[in-house]
Design a protein that fits this description.
With about 230 residues, this protein is an all-alpha fold. Helices cover about 75% and strands about 0% of the residues. Helix 6 runs antiparallel to helix 7. The protein starts with 7 loop residues before the first helix and ends with a helix.
């Protein structure tokens, strides 16, 4: 059987492949200490991160959650000043939890509690500051953040920003909170004298969420802006 003749292009390709392989082997031989050291550093970094998560961050999160218990009780009882700094029983208030447990989910959630507490205490600038720092997750907390910011800006008289945040809260896919903020948005339009926009919001509540709490008495709101 006759042997195939290797063309020049195939030979050149083979030479190139061999050269690349030899160069790679030479590089590894010359630099194996550096490469091995880099791999060790990578392993240490990954291992260190996992250790940080399990041995440091998670215990701090659990400790912060335990500390939040009393402050949350005061918050639910509308004792907002106590919830912020002195909930009692030797527990930390929300402000101290933010300072002492930076980087934990509990500290992040405390920013929402602090924002709403300041909102109820009439300190609207502080409320906005903490609410804006709060990083919401999931489906519900973004709505709560936007709604609370809408409340704070409305209290300050900045109706443009209040409407913007209420719209974000009202456009959420949530059968409990969306109609509530749709109704609040309508009330804000009504307060501004824009009866057409108010009526549109009220009618949307009636059409989309008729059995919601906000929808139960929505007829009287529609009638009021229809006169």
């Amino acid at each position: 059987m006759a042997k195939r003749k290797k063309n020049k292009q195939s030979e050149e390709l083979l030479v190139d492949i061999v050269e690349v392989r030899d160069q790679a082997q030479g590089f590894m031989e010359r630099n194996q200490k550096v490469v091995f050291g880099a791999l060790v550093v990578l392993v240490v970094l990954v291992g260190g991160f996992l250790a940080y998560k399990s041995l440091y961050q998670q215990p701090r999160q659990e400790e912060a959650v335990e500390q939040m218990f009393r402050a949350q009780m005061q918050f639910e009882q509308d004792s907002f000043a106590l919830a912020l700094t002195n909930p009692g029983g030797g527990y930390l208030g929300f402000l101290d939890i933010i300072d002492s447990y930076t980087g934990t989910k509990a500290a992040n959630l405390s920013k929402y509690y602090v924002g709403v507490s300041y909102l109820n205490l009439g300190k609207f600038e502080a409320a906005i500051s903490y609410l804006e720092d709060f990083s919401p997750a999931g489906d519900v907390t973004p709505i709560m953040k936007n709604g609370a910011l809408g409340d704070a800006y409305a209290e300050q008289g900045d109706m443009g920003k209040a409407i913007s945040y209420y719209k974000k809260a009202a456009n959420a896919d949530n059968e409990a909170l969306a109609p509530y903020y749709m109704k609040k948005l309508g009330m804000l339009y009504e307060y501004q004298g824009d009866m057409a926009a108010a009526k549109k919001q009220y009618e949307a509540v009636k059409e989309e969420y008729p059995s919601s709490i906000a929808g139960r008495d929505i007829e009287k709101f529609i009638a009021r802006v229809s006169q």
